[in-house]
Amino acid sequence: MYTVSQAEGLTGIPSTTLRAWERRYGIIAPRRTEGGYRLYDAAQIAMLREMAARVQGGMRPAQAAASLMDQQPPTRTRATSLDAGTPDLVAAAASLDPTALRETIDEAFGAERFEDVVTTWLLPQLRLLGEAWQSGRLTVAQEHFASAGLMAALAAAYRNASGQSRGPTVLVGLPAGARHQLAILAFATCLRRLGSNALYLGADLPTEDWAMTARGQRARAVVLGVYSPADAASATLVVKALADSAVPVWVGGASAAGVRGAAPLPDDLPEAAHQLNQVLLLRGLHPRASQVT
Questions:
Q1: Domain HTH merR-type spans what residues (predicted)?
Q2: What pTM was computed for the model?
Q3: What is the pLDDT of residues 117-135, one digit of tens each?
């Protein structure tokens, strides 16, 4: 049996691609150790080599996978996408093993488009992570360990979207006192991928800094994550501070309804980003506005 790193060396396929092919196309279903690590047998290594050869020969990965699966016995069990065998963030958090956590996150992020990962994996796993902490199954240290790994992955996705952001500046972040960054950073990344210059300002930003940055950057909108009543009170102060500059404020999160003077966004983060982007387009604040009829 071979580990992921050994399979990578034997096939020449990067580990992230190995996991993506497994998730997207179901060409292999490696065994798992008790710790959740993949183990590949010789037949699976051979199949991966053959798929790599077909892709290098000009076939699209989906075509190569389909042609390989057609050659397999009909009783073969095919792996599916994130709906089955979902990478378990809680287990990775409990392990306090950086390698296990990285592999879990890489597996999830490599399985689908970023927006689909946010909807089908990230948000559900964050809820499970919170429930595990509240029930005592995870310690604060374990929860923070997982959150740090996710933050790094989201920051990388945000950076990778920078080449797509030529639109209006939208300030995104958390008001004073708010610290839960994962969902709002995922939103900023979704918005950036749509072409807006979503400038992520992080957590616990003082009210006066929101107003000063909005003026300095000529922001066309501000988006705040609001996850508690205290967050709502802080966000309301931001709305008041921005009133003179006429910069509109949108809010999302569990306590968004408690913010006066701001427009609410849906809980679905990719949909929220899409809706805001459409508003910017329709108001003529986006370079692609001329394409809207």
A1: 1-70
A2: 0.70
A3: 999 899 999 999 999 999 9
